[in-house]
Amino acid sequence: MPKTSKRTANTPSSPIRRLVPFAEAAKKKGTEVFHLNIGQPDIETPKIGVKALQEADLGVIAYSHSAGTASYRNKLVEFYSRYAIDINSEEMIVTNGGSEALLFAILACTDAGDEIIVPEPFYANYNGFAKSLDVNIVPITAHIETGFALPPIDAFEAKISAKTKAILICNPSNPTGYMYSVEELEQLKSIVQRHDLYLIADEVYRDFCYEGQQHTSILAIDGMEEYAVMIDSISKRYSACGARLGLVVSKNKAMMAEAMKLAQARLSPSTLAQILGEGLIDTPRSYFEEVTKEYDLRRKTVINRLQAMEGVVCPNPLGAFYTFVQFPVDNSDKFCQWLLEEFSHNGKTVMMAPGTGFYDTEGLGRQEARIAYVLNTNALNEAMDCLEAALKVYPGVVKKQTKAINV
Amino acid sequence: MPKTSKRTANTPSSPIRRLVPFAEAAKKKGTEVFHLNIGQPDIETPKIGVKALQEADLGVIAYSHSAGTASYRNKLVEFYSRYAIDINSEEMIVTNGGSEALLFAILACTDAGDEIIVPEPFYANYNGFAKSLDVNIVPITAHIETGFALPPIDAFEAKISAKTKAILICNPSNPTGYMYSVEELEQLKSIVQRHDLYLIADEVYRDFCYEGQQHTSILAIDGMEEYAVMIDSISKRYSACGARLGLVVSKNKAMMAEAMKLAQARLSPSTLAQILGEGLIDTPRSYFEEVTKEYDLRRKTVINRLQAMEGVVCPNPLGAFYTFVQFPVDNSDKFCQWLLEEFSHNGKTVMMAPGTGFYDTEGLGRQEARIAYVLNTNALNEAMDCLEAALKVYPGVVKKQTKAINV
After folding, report:
1. Which of A103, A229, A293, B204 is surrounded by the most beta carbons within 10 Å?
2. Rounded distance, CA B246 to CA B94, Å?
3. Among A96, A129, A166, whose Cβ lies nearest the Cβ of B96?
C-alpha cells in the first residue's frame, strides 16, 4: 500500500472534534448536550444577504475573477472604510473561507522548515495548517493572570531566529476573547520592523467588542504597510460560517502577487458566496448593535456564573465570543470527557473544548477549557447549572489551584 | 521588507491568464473576442439545482460536517452507482472545488521534494499546486501523432525513482480531450501496484464523451482500491464552475484519514454549494443527452474546420470539451498574442491558450494551442473564420511542419 506523507502524519487532528463521539453517545442515551465547544453561532444570517442570493439571476453559475468579483471587492473598499481601514480593491483577494486566506498567507510568507511565532493559547487549526505546510509554530505563552494579554516583547525577541518569518495573532482572540490594545499592536510593529517579519492578523471577530472597547486593525496602524497581512471572513460577522467567504488583505505588493498565483491556481472563490457577501454589506448598523448586545448579555451571564464557582478562574474577555477558563480539576481533557460520558444534571450536560488543544507547549492547558457563549442566556444558565453541579461531584476535583487570580 | 517564499516564487503564474490584458485591450478597441481560452461553458446550470438553493430555508448558514453533509454524501453514493462506481459515504470528502480536492490529495500523498509523474500536455494548474507545495512534477510526453494517448509503460518506468509518490492523470483530458481506454488504465494499474504509488485521477469531465465512447473511472477498476484517488467536481458536469464544489474519493482508509485532518483544519465545505449540488443530482438524464449532443456538434464544427486548414494538425478528441491543436506558426505564444493585439477579421478575433503553458518540458508546445469549444456553433464558426483568415496573414507562418499526421 502506498505510504501517506510525513507532513500530514505530523498534522494534528482537530482537538475539538475528539470528543464528538462522546457527545453523540450522550445524546443517544437521551442526555441534552449544551454545545459550548464550537464557535457556531445560533444567530440568524441577515435576511438582506440571503435575499440577494435567493433572488439573484443564476443562469450560469460561472467562475469569478480569481481575486473575487470587481463589484464585491469595490463594495468591500467602502465597507472597510467604516472601520478606518483604508485599502483598495487591488490589495485584497477574496477566498474560500478565512481558512484559504490563511493558507495563501502561510504559503506566500514561509518555506518548508520556517517558523511562525504565535501567542498561545491559540486557535488549534493554526497548527493544522502550519504542520501540513511544513511550517513550525513557535509558541509564546500568554497567561490567564493577565487575561491572556500580549506576552512581553522580550519573550518574542528570545524566540526569533533566522527561520522566523512571521508573527501570527488572532485579534480579538479565539480562544481567549482577549483584544489587543493599540499599544500592544505598536509593540508588535516594532518587532516586525526590527526583524523584517510579517505580522499576520486574524481579525474575523472584529465586530464583537464589549464594554465600549474599540477594535484596531493592524491595517490601521501607520508604518505597517509592508508587514501587515490581514485575514478576514464573513463567517462570524454575519453568522454565515457555512458560506466559506474570506479575504486576505495586504498593502505589500510582492506578497499579494505571490498569493495571486495561488488564487489563480484554484481559479475562483465561490460566486454564490460573493453574491451573499455583497448583499450582506448592506446589513444595517442596528443588526450589529442588537447582536453585540445579545452576545454581551451572554458574556456577562457566563462570566458572572463562572467567577462565582469555587476554584474557577475566569478572566473578563472584551472581544469575540469565547472565554478561556481554569477549572479546579486534575485534567480538563478528562473532565470534558467525563461531562459527556458519566455526568448529567436534570438530563443535561455541557460540551467544552479542552484547553490542551490550544497550546503548543506540552503540558499547558490541563486545567483549562474554552467556552463559546453562542447559545441564548437561558441555555447558558442551564449549562452553567450543569457545570456548577458537575464540579461538586467530579472525582478529579483538586482543591489547590496553580493559579487563582481573577482579572 | 519581509521576503516572500521560495515556494511561491517557484510557482508559475497561470499561463492562460497572461494574455488577459491583451484581450481587454482588444475589446477596448471595439474588437469582439471569441473566448476559446478557458473552460467556462455557456450552458445554463440546471434549474433544478438553482431552485433547491433559492428555495432553501437559509436561517443560519452554518458549518457543515468537515467531510460534507450526510444528506449530500448519501445522495452521491447513489449518483456514482449510475457510473458503476461503488463507493460509500465514508470514502469521500466534499471539498471547496476540485482544486481543494487536489490540494488534499497532494498533501496526503507527498512530502516536500517528492515527485508526481504526469503525462504532458497537462492542465497548467497542476504545476501551480505542486510547486507551491514543494512537489516536483515529472512530465512524460504524450504526442499529437497518437492523439495524446498514454505514453508507453517504459517511459513511466524510466522516470520512477524513490521520490515518486504518485501518477496524476486527467481523464478525459484537459487540455487534449483524450480519453483513456480500459487497457491504458490497466497498464497504469500495473505500474502503481509494482511501485506502490498512488494513481490520482482528475475525472471532472467524465460526463462528456462522444462517438459512443464510455468513460471508465479508476474506481471501477478491480485491484485499484489502495492506489486510486479520484478528484471530482460539479463545475463542468452541471456548468456550475462558480459553485466551487468538489470531492476527493478513495478506498484507501489511511490516505483518507490524513485528508480528513486537512478537511477539519479548514472546518467545512460550502453549505450553499452542497444544497445546490444535492439538488443537481436530480437533474434528469435528458439534460446530459442534450448537453452532450450540443458539445458534440461544437466538437465536430471545430475539428472539421481546423482539419480543413492548411498545415493545421488537429486530433479527434473523444472526451471533455477541448482540443489541442498544432498550428503552422513560428511560436504559438506570439501567435495567440498577435491575434489579440494586431489582428481582427470583420471586427472579431480569437483568444486561445498557448500550448507551452501545458508542458513542463522546456521547448515543447511552441506550435500548439488549446481550444475550448464552449461557445455555440455560430460563434465557433465565426471564430474558425477568424483563425483561417489569420493563418493567411500572420507574419510568422511556417510552411514546413514538425509533425503533420492527423489522427
Report:
1. A229
2. 6
3. A96
Indicate the angle between helix axes A20-28 and A332-341, nearest 10 degrees: 20
Closest by CA to A168, choosing from A125, A224, A116, is A116
With respect to residue A401, please indicate whether it lies within any of the assigned structural domains: no
Residues A143 and A66 in one domain: yes
Distances A392 to A32, A309, A327, A388 between C-alpha atoms, Å = 20, 10, 12, 7
Question: What are the tens digits of pLDDT across the range A49-66?
Answer: 999 999 999 999 999 999
What distance in Å separates the CA atoms of residue B168 and residue B188, rounded to the nearest whole number? 10
Are the Cβ atoms of B5 and A264 closer than 8 angstroms? no
Cβ proximity of A191 and A197 under 8 Å: yes
Look at residue B335 and tell me whether its pLDDT is greater than 50: yes
Q: Are residues B117 and B221 in the same domain?
A: yes
Whether the link from the prior residue into A121 is cis, omega within 30° of 0, is: yes
* Cβ A38 vs Cβ A16: under 8 Å: yes
CB-based contact B21:B15 (threshold 8 Å): no
Listed in sequence order, the residues at least 6 apart from A23 whose beta carbon sits closer than 8 Å to its beta carbon are A33, A35, A37, A340, A351
What's chain A's average pLDDT? 96
- SS3 for B27? helix
**Same domain (yes/no): A181, A129:** yes
Rounded to two decimals, what is the model's pTM?
0.96
Residues of B in contact with A236 (CB under 8 A): none
Does the predicted interface ipTM exceed a cut of 0.85?
yes
Full domain range(s) for residue A305: 6-44+286-393
Q: Which of B234, B257, B280 is where one domain is finished?
A: B280
